Amino acid sequence: MDYLFVGLGNPGSQYTATRHNIGFMAIESLLGVYNCSAPKLKMQGLFTRIKLPHCGLIFLQPQTYMNRSGEAVVRFMEYYQVDLDHLVVLHDDIDLSFGRVKIVANGGAGGHNGIRSIIQHVGGKTFSRMKIGVGRPSSKGNQKDIPVDKYVLSRFTAQEQVLLEKIYWRIGDAVDILLTQGVAACMNEINGLPIVD
Q: Which are the catalytic amino acids?
């Protein structure tokens, strides 16, 4: 059976490389790891599908805007007959420090509109999430007093951009563990790691 890996973000150049689009960025890094062909547009999403010896992988970036991500996700799940336990959603998390990656087997939306949309459309919440920490606005410096909604649509600092490649490596490791050993082993291995620095 295929695994569907969904990276959340917003289409359009004004959102490129923003914190809220870290899910899109993570999928782009995974396309390189698995030597995928260029994504194609289908059913409201940019996607690539490959076959591995033990399973198939579908990488998806919904093009519906964040708040309607579930519309594309459910269409791909139905078309490729992907079960909820084979759905993995990669997304930003402001409650995790930048440089932290956390795997969660199921749960609520936690205030994330993209996750909320997916739960509504797929009819359940027992899918895996790969939460990628983007942190909250700093109380000092040029981030002081930035509202959270504007903060997540801001771009990474130069210092953070240097660390993104290490974060992508951790995400790649997490995907490999999830595929070969399961989500529980992935949680045990990845969630206890120190912040990438």
A: 20
Would you call 52 helix, strand, or coil by DSSP?
coil
Using the predicted structure, report yes or no on whether residue 143 has a pLDDT greater than 80: no
How many domains, the chain? 1
Is residue 37, in this structure, part of any structural domain at all? yes
Task: Indicate whether 124 belongs to any domain.
Answer: yes
Torsions phi, psi of 129, nearest 5?
Answer: -125, 140
| Structural domain boundaries enclosing 25 | 2-190
Residue 97: other Cβ atoms inside 10 A? 13
Q: Measured between alpha carbons, how far is 96 from 183 in angstroms, rounded to an integer?
A: 19
pLDDT tens for residues 7-57? 999 999 999 999 999 999 999 999 999 999 999 999 999 999 999 998 999
Angle at 85 between CA 79 and CA 91, to 5 degrees: 85
In this structure, what CATH number is given to the domain that contains residue 88?
3.40.50.1470
